[in-house]
Design a protein that fits this description.
This protein is α+β, with helices and mostly antiparallel strands. The protein has helices spanning 17-29, 45-50, 72-82, 94-123, 129-149, 160-175, 177-181, 186-196, 199-204; strands at residues 9-12, 33-37, 58-61, 67-69, 218-220. Helix content is 53%, strand content 9%. The chain has a five-stranded mixed β-sheet. It starts with 8 loop residues before the first strand and ends with a strand.
Length: 223
């Protein structure tokens, strides 16, 4: 067992986009957490005790004070406030930070609903598929425009906005794979591919054994 039992504990689900972006942020902090991978059909008692709503991700922090963080963006912000060696928060530019939060909110509350409708239309072979895709494209076009102006969504370097949106754009790209590959969004495709082919993403998406009480701790992040 780990000698240091006070590391934060992250309850996660490998392919959940919200859990994915929490892991990405934690990866960039270069600090370890204890990872507990699970399936929501078998929610452990410890997860429900920490967060009764029973969704992931959930981060349980013991030091310097005890707290439970059960929203993915809040986990990202907390983690990067502890350590942000790549300045993903752009801490010296409050306006840039506020713009990032606004963009993330738009995608969390508007694009995500459109994406779910698009995925559902594909799954059930609905005639409305192309219309749902076009609704998503309104948001995709905004990202393409941004990426025409600079390499990443906010500037010439990666930021909180990039890693927060990444898992959802990945989902969008997988709904109609052939359509996406031929779509008129070359900069978005390059941006997404650069992340997906990176060592970071391979490590974030590594498969771990599902956690059960009594298991030896699994470390995630840089030691």
């Amino acid at each position: 067992m780990l000698e240091n039992k006070r590391l934060p504990i992250l309850y996660s689900l490998r392919n959940c986009p919200y859990a994915m972006r929490a892991r990405i942020a934690i990866f960039y902090t270069q600090q370890p957490v204890i990872l507990r991978d699970l399936v929501l059909s078998n929610k452990p008692t410890a997860l429900l005790a920490a967060s009764p709503k029973g969704t992931v991700p959930v981060l349980v922090v013991s030091e310097p004070k005890e707290q439970v963080i059960d929203e993915s963006l809040d986990i990202m912000l907390w983690a990067l406030s502890q350590s942000d060696p790549d300045d993903l928060l752009q801490q010296n530019d409050l306006d840039a930070f506020n713009q990032m939060i606004k963009l993330i909110s738009t995608f969390d509350h508007e694009f995500k609903a459109s994406l779910e409708a698009y995925k559902c239309a594909k799954r059930y072979h609905e005639e409305s598929l192309s219309q749902h895709r076009k609704t998503c494209e309104v948001y995709i076009q905004d990202l393409e425009k941004r990426l025409t102006e600079h390499e990443f969504l906010m500037s010439s370097r990666s930021s909180l906005a990039d890693i927060a949106l990444l898992p959802f754009i990945r989902q969008f790209a997988r709904v109609e794979r052939q359509w996406y590959l031929q779509s008129p969004y070359p900069n978005l495709k390059m941006w997404l591919n650069n992340y997906l082919q990176s060592p970071m993403f391979s490590k974030v998406m590594a498969k771990f054994s599902l956690w059960s009480p009594g298991d030896e701790a699994t470390l995630f992040g840089k030691l």
